[in-house]
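Running co-folding for magnesium ion.
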Amino acid sequence: MGRINILDKHVAELIAAGEVVERPSSVIKELVENSIDAGATAVTVEIKNGGVTFMRVSDNGSGILRDDIRPAFIRHATSKVRVEDDLSAIATLGFRGEALASVSSVSHLELITKAREEDIGTRYLIEGGEEISLDDAGCPDGTTFIIRDLFYNVPARMKFLKTDMAEGNAVSNVVDKIALSHPEIAITYIRDQKTVLRTSGDSKLLSAIYAVYGRDFASSLIPVDYTLGGIHVSGYVSRPENARPNRNMQNFFINRRFVICKTAMAALSEACKGAVMVGKFPSCVLDLDMSFEAVDVNVHPTKLEVRFVNERPVFDAVYHAVKTALMNGDKRVEAKLNKPSVKVNPFELAQKVFRERDEKPAAPVQKPDLTRLDKRTEQKRSDELFAMLDEPVVTVPKRTADSISLSDSASPAVENYRKYIESVKADKIAEPEKKEEEAPAEPEPTVEKLAVQEADEEPKPLIDMDDNYYKYIGEAFGTYIILQKNDKELLLIDKHAAHERIIFEKLKKDKGSGYSQLLLEPITVTLNKIDYTAVTQSLDIFSEAGFDIEDFGSGTVIVRSAPQYLPAEDIESSVIEMAGYLSENKKEIRSEKMEWIYANVSCRAAIKGGNRSTERELIELARQVEDEDIRRCPHGRPVSLVLTKRELERMFGRLQ
Ligand code: ADP
Ligand code: MG
């Protein structure tokens, strides 16, 4: 007697129709959720080519009874829901009975499974929804699904798939979330034959966080454990000073189901207000344990959104849980600036930015039900929630609102600046030209010269822009330009990121040969077969990026000109890298490729952190950043960072 029953039409219709299988990551999500529902304690996920050609999910769960195999592939066939009432209290991750039907209709699917209570396992093949075979198989208890050639019979869907890299990254994202929400399951994840994640399954959330996000992140967290209004909030939140420039590491789980939960995000922001810099976001891994009746998970086919019967208790529970945790965790004062969170290869970062941009949800996110919120705070919170919905993936501190108007400022510092600036206005206007003349002649700094510079206490105004006045303070770590803006804040500018962006914009604007430079000696570059084909087929793209490249035959190309900003010693490696990118990203649109190439060139051409720069260069760079309102580098990292006087005062305990 099997476990599976086919839902009656009424119940089936209650489950809104929708597409479950959008891309490889959605298949992996459904299959791993099935493994979890089957009580597995170990799950292995393997993908090749972003999952498009090959995906395997193996578990040691209950297995599927032979009699249940065929029904399992029928739409709305599930062992998890029987009657309408079951839908109001879903305790399993799956319940829609759609995944296997959907996946098998658009792929070559192989299932190998053995239920504990049966002696012999089964191997079942189904392709494009048509059963091919069902045979005995010797196999351990548990289930393995192998999915090959996703969308082989739906070219229209195939077309919407992104590059293997992007699809693989989306799968990694899904596996990360599952690992974080189920630390009791040992998860192994193999991507293109490399094991990229392995969790121990020791049930400790911190172990899973360590496996997913690494040691630095795991060791800087504050534990959260709080119950309010029947909702138990547990997990970890980052220290406020470790806030990040985006929300990518805000993980919320409702009854251990990963969801995008705007209410919880808003509560987290509210709880961290004042502790986290404007434009920065705390990270967290928080599970909200609540009664199954209090939440409706049947809102969307992918089950990524949920609806609460009542939003308010959810908001309050998260708010108080985080607030309490921060208070307990804030025993020592750490006046640390936000450090860059992860070291990433810029090219991977570029991929990531493109991916994130692609993945921004197209559908409008549902407005949370705020009707039960207290009248006074309702407007404020709803404003906040909506502000959050529109926020870009990467944000940087907003600065414009803080600008000082000279006329109503009584600050002597500002007054001094005004006088000073007026007295040197003529000089200042001529400054960019002067820089051109003087820069090449700039001698190596000598001891005498350094001494003179140190003795020079005179404020060095940068420029007055929109009533803002800047005092150049110096350069830190050979990387960050420090400026005092008005008398309100310190501005730190990453000189590499800033320069990179400026070059990037120039390349984009000048397009084509405008900035291409003939090389004194052409450079030959030898490429592997795949990259060689990619380059020779994309000579026009290279040309638009300022590279004049010719096919030299037998795997070699010859570079005759290159963008003038690119150091000569970087040309060969740049071409090889671009070739690699082009061969891996066949499907991407041209403008996206161009952006990537411009980003690559500008990254190489920009002054590097640690390189010596003259004060004039730095001032000019800072001037451009402020003048052109440059906010992030082509890879999406912020270019500047603001530390307000108030924040400093708070850190030093001058302000309560
Ligand atoms: P749902 O998960 O919504 O029930 P699916 O189409 O994902 O629907 O799966 C159909 C049924 O197949 C499940 O209800 C379950 O009984 C069975 N099943 C799927 N995957 C597994 C697995 N890994 N182990 C045991 N049973 C499984
Ligand atoms: Mg399922």
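Result summary
The two ends are 69 Å apart (CA to CA).
The pocket of adenosine-5'-diphosphate (ligand 1) is lined by residues 4, 30, 34-35, 38, 59, 61-64, 72, 77-80, 94-100, 143 (CB under 6 Å).
Job closed.
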